[in-house]
Structure formats: structure tokens, C-alpha cells
Design goal:
The complex is a heterodimer. By secondary structure, chain A is of the alpha/beta class. Chain A has 13 helices and 14 strands. In chain A, about 35% of the residues lie in helices and about 20% in strands. In chain A, helix 7 crosses helix 13. Classes of the chains: A alpha/beta, B mainly alpha. Chains A and B meet through helix 2 of A and helix 1 and helix 2 of B. Chain B: Carrier of the growing fatty acid chain in fatty acid biosynthesis.
Chain lengths: ~425, ~80
């Protein structure tokens, strides 16, 4: 099987419009949570979110760097974020100008969990209030989930596989895992892989709140709301943004002298077959997904130094993931670290697995693991697990595991190691 | 420049993201301003909203330049 490495990173997050700003702020224990500004959420149970900040903000995002004004107007923000992250990743890899021959073997696998929810909502209102003749001609292709891959392939002329995963909050991790397999199976030599989301709109917040998934008890102290593993956690905080990596066949990357961040060595997938929103009560789906990734990687438990947890800050989910990690890692738990960066940037849903995989890679690059914010009072079951409370921790990081679990009972785990 | 021309050009600049200087009356939406057929559908909708006129499909198909749009709108007002 051909080996697959990561040679480029790109990100738009609530803590930065690019990879390095986001990472610097994550390591500095900053929170991207605040009162919702996109719409008046006064009457909503949940009035907070981790929004991507405007360009004039200290760690804001400037869409115009990589996305034409016309496209920004026509498509939903999740696509705009995805194009920006993909552009940054390609530049980082030094692959933003490839020959036609190279581009025939380069593709995209950038998905989303929900897609263009804000635009579906607003155009539905146009339809209801003004009639069918006023609905935008760009409505459909400006909202479709595979249109990040579509737009990016057009912008950069990438003619290889064009794919988009839709597995709720596991999308980003599945996208990277599936794309790595496309390279391993010789369908492509280069793949842009990741996920994006932007669903901070009235129907998105109302819908997740009605599903009892969002934090509602910290509306006056937004930065305290995302608190994975803490006894007072009460749901996740919605985030938005995008993460995209450049995956490349190892020999090709080596031959062109590329900067190689990490090798993707393990990928596990499973289904809970239990409930649409609640995780399996024994965490068995997450366990099997991690176990499969570990088996494929050929590593032993002791080789994993850091786990970037799914850890969304929901009462049930955090506990079950923790239980599954404990059962799998056993005695090795005492020498590894595990944290949830959702404590800082919220839950990016379809973007989460990709953004968090990038944090894992940077943890290996910089030999420092990001913190779990707001872990003031760990729940009883946290005993013996280093959840990196409050502040980042310098330590040896050779191999990392990233977990992502989604509605529908879909689980993905990725293992990467330094090379 | 007529008031109609001013308002038409403003809409074109905003929707197509082109520089105002490029939006001359002779400019073709597709050849000079980078629009595709769906962009023209959207522009026609924006003209209808702005000027309170109805531009039927057969008339919209004949609007190729900025001047075509201005003339059509003026003829209906």
C-alpha cells in the first residue's frame, strides 16, 4: 500500500483566519465564544456561539484574500471558509501551481455536516414572502455540500477525484481518512481533504437547542460554556469554520523535497447502530473505531502520546468517550494526554475532525498539547487521565489519535505520526 | 449620465464584484464583466426589484450590455 503524508495545512476558525493564528490562540488558552452577532438571539435558549470573527478583529478572517467577491455573495459561508482553508493548505504545501499532469492526479474530498443552512433558511423566506420568481438562481449550487470540492477544483484546476463526505460531526475525520485511502489505492497522488461548517443561523441554533444538544446555562458568560469533562457542562457551543489538509503520496512528497508534517497511518470507522443522537451507552462504537485505527496503524498503545477527543461538552457524550478511551488504553493512560479543543473554538460539526487533526499535527510539530479550557471540577471518571486543564503543556508527542463521533451513530478515528 | 444608468451600474458592481470603471455602457455582461448566464438571471431580478418593473424572459435574453439594460428599463418607466 502507498504511504500517505500531510504536506499542507489550512484553517478558518473562531480563533483565527489561518492556521498559525488559530494555533497560537489555542495554545494561549483563548476562547472564541461570545454572544451571537449574526442574528438577534435574545429570545433563544442558547444565545452564544463561537463565530468566525470579522476581518478587522484581532484574530479575524478576511474572505477576500482567496475568494472572489462574486462567489462570496452567491454561496453560503461554509463554502467560502472551505475555499479559504483549501487555498492556504495548497500554498503551504507549495502546490498552488501544479502542471496539468499533476492536476490530473490531484483531487478534493472536502465535506460538511449540514451544508448551506443559513442560505436555505433565508431563501425559504424569500420564497414565502416574494414568490418563486425571486429565489436566487445560485440557490442550489450555493448550498450543496459538495460545492467546496467543486469550487476548489475549478479554482485550482484539480481534475482528480472530487468527493464530499456527509457524516455529521465525523465529516472532517472521514474526509481525511477516505482521501488518504484514495491516495493509498492509487486513485490520486494529491488530495485536499477536510470539512467546513457554518450553521450559526436562527434555524440552526433553534434546531440544535430543541434537540437538547446546546449549552444554555452560560449565556451571560459565553467563554465558560464549553467545558468538556467538567461536572457543570451542559451541552456544546456551536462553532464554525473549516479545516483542510493536503495529503500526498509519500514518495512524491519526498522526491520534491516537501515539508512533511505527519504520516496518516491509521483510520478506523464504525457505526453505533443504537440511536440517532445518543451515543451507545457503553461507548462501543467509539471504542471499535479507535481500536480499528490502532490496528491499521501497526502502532502499540504506548506509542500514542496525545488524544484530541471528540469531547463536545455534553453530559453523556464526554463520559462515554472517556470510558471507551480508558478501556482501550488501560495502564498507558497515565503516560498520555488527552484534551478537547472544542473548549476553545466550540464544535465545528462537519469541520471539527479536520480542524482537530490539524491541531494534532501541530502538537507533534511543536511538542506541546493544547488545553481543555474550563475544566474547573473534573467529573469523577476523569481520575488518572491527564486532560490538560486550562493551560497547554509541553511534552513529547510522537503519535496522535483524533476522534470524531456524529449524529446517526457514525464514528471515525485517525492516527497520525511524525515522520 | 441618467439616474437609471447610475443605479444599474451600482447593481452590476455589487453583484459581479467588478471595478466601477469597467462598467461602461458598451460593456457586455458576459464578454467584458465575467458574468455567466445565471449571473444575468440574478442581475435581471435585481433590476426588477430596484426599478419595480417586470422583465419577461424573452426580453431578458436580449439584454447583453449595460446599455441594453438601461434602455429596457427606461422604456418601461
Amino acid at each position: 500500500m502507498r504511504r500517505v503524508v500531510v504536506t499542507g495545512l489550512g484553517m478558518v476558525s473562531p480563533l483565527g483566519g489561518n492556521v498559525e493564528t488559530s494555533w497560537k490562540n489555542i495554545i494561549a488558552s483563548k476562547s472564541g465564544a461570545a454572544t451571537i452577532t449574526r442574528f438577534d438571539a435574545t429570545d433563544y435558549k442558547c444565545r452564544i456561539a463561537c463565530e468566525v470573527k470579522p476581518a478587522d478583529h484581532e484574530y479575524g478572517y478576511d474572505a477576500s484574500l482567496d475568494v472572489d467577491h462574486k462567489i462570496q455573495r452567491q454561496v453560503d459561508p461554509f463554502i467560502v471558509y472551505g475555499i479559504s482553508a483549501a487555498s492556504e493548505a495548497l500554498r503551504d504545501a507549495g502546490l498552488d501551481t501544479m502542471t496539468e499532469e499533476e492536476r490530473l492526479r490531484a483531487g478534493c474530498s472536502i465535506g460538511s455536516g449540514i451544508g448551506g443552512l443559513p442560505g436555505i433558511e433565508s431563501e425559504s423566506l424569500v420564497l414565502a414572502n416574494k414568490g418563486p420568481g425571486r429565489v436566487s438562481p445560485h440557490f442550489v449550487h450555493g448550498r450543496l455540500i459538495n460545492l467546496i470540492s467543486g469550487q476548489v477544483s475549478i479554482k485550482y484546476g484539480l481534475m482528480g477525484p472530487n468527493h464530499a463526505v456527509v457524516t455529521a460531526c465525523s465529516t472532517g475525520a472521514h474526509s481525511i481518512g477516505d482521501a488518504a485511502r484514495m491516495i493509498a489505492m492509487d486513485d490520486a497522488d494529491v488530495m485536499l481533504a477536510g470539512g467546513a461548517e457554518s450553521a450559526i443561523c436562527p434555524i440552526g441554533i433553534a434546531g440544535f437547542a430543541q434537540a437538547r444538544a446546546l449549552s444554555t446555562g452560560f449565556n451571560d458568560t459565553p467563554e465558560k460554556a464549553s467545558r468538556p469533562y467538567d461536572v457543570n457542562r451542559d451541552g456544546f457551543v456551536m462553532g464554525e469554520g473549516a479545516g483542510v489538509v493536503v495529503l500526498e503520496e509519500y514518495e512524491r512528497a519526498k522526491a520534491r523535497g516537501a515539508k512533511i508534517y505527519a504520516e496518516v497511518i491509521g483510520y478506523g470507522l464504525s457505526g453505533d447502530a443504537y440511536h440517532v443522537t445518543a451515543p451507545h451507552p457503553e461507548g462501543s462504537g467509539g471504542y471499535r473505531s479507535m481500536e480499528m485505527a490502532l490496528k491499521k496503524s501497526g502502532l502499540s498503545l504506548e506509542d500514542i502520546d496525545y488524544v484530541n477527543a471528540h469531547g463536545t461538552s455534553t453530559p453523556l457524550g464526554d463520559e462515554l468517550e472517556l470510558g471507551a478511551v480508558k478501556r482501550l488504553f488501560g495502564d498507558h493512560l497515565s503516560s498520555m494526554s488527552m484534551s478537547s479543543t472544542k473548549s476553545a473554538i466550540g464544535h465545528l460539526l462537519g469541520g471539527a475532525g479536520a480542524v482537530e487533526s490539524i491541531f494534532c499535527i501541530l502538537a507533534m510539530r511543536d511538542q506541546i498539547v493544547p488545553p481543555t479550557l474550563n475544566l474547573d471540577e473534573p467529573s469523577e471518571s476523569c481520575k488518572g487521565v491527564d486532560l490538560v486543564p486550562h493551560v497547554a503543556k509541553e511534552r513529547k508527542v510522537r503519535a496522535v489519535l483524533n476522534n470524531s463521533f456524529g449524529f446517526g451513530g457514525t464514528n471515525a478515528s485517525l492516527i497520525m505520526k511524525a515522520i | 449620465m441618467s439616474e437609471t444608468a447610475d443605479r444599474v451600474k451600482k447593481i452590476v458592481v455589487e453583484h459581479l464584484g467588478v471595478e466601477a470603471e469597467k462598467v461602461t455602457e458598451d460593456a457586455s455582461f458576459i464578454d467584458d464583466l465575467g458574468a455567466d448566464s445565471l449571473d444575468i438571471v440574478e442581475l435581471v431580478m435585481a433590476f426588477e426589484e430596484e426599478f419595480g418593473v417586470e422583465i419577461p424572459d424573452d426580453a431578458a435574453e436580449k439584454i447583453a450590455t449595460v446599455k441594453d439594460a438601461i434602455d429596457y428599463i427606461d422604456s418601461k418607466q
